[in-house]
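Q: Got a minute? One more chain.
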Amino acid sequence: MPVKKKLIEIVFFMTLLASSAAPSMSQENPIKWDALSSDEKQILSPLQDKWDKLSPAKKKRLIEGVRTWNAISLEQKKDFKQKLHTWKQLTPDKKKRTRIQFELFQNLSDTKKQSLRKTYEEFKRLPQEKQNSLLSEYYEN
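A: Always. Here it is, folded:
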């Protein structure tokens, strides 16, 4: 695969990279709303009415997400919000393709993942004009 196309594809892989889903939690220990910390309740408040209907695994992922969110810097939060906004603007077809690419990435060997991450970092260091040029060239072909 030509380097230019490889760089472009990596851009899409990396936009969705996040920590893998937390391992499933046993059905025997459902997490009760009252057991959440005040920070967790505040962030998860839109889900309070639905909380008891969520699976224990989903609850665990949500709580881990809150903990991760609280641990990151303001700059990281700003970056995440921008990526979320971009994601919301994608068409359903583009979202589907991105999910497929993410799954393909997750199934790669660690060596291949590292190689793609390195290439992506190289792409990010390029001037914006060069990045745009590569993206335009990729979509024209």
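A: Confidence is low (pLDDT under 50) at residues 18-27.
Q: Perfect, thanks.
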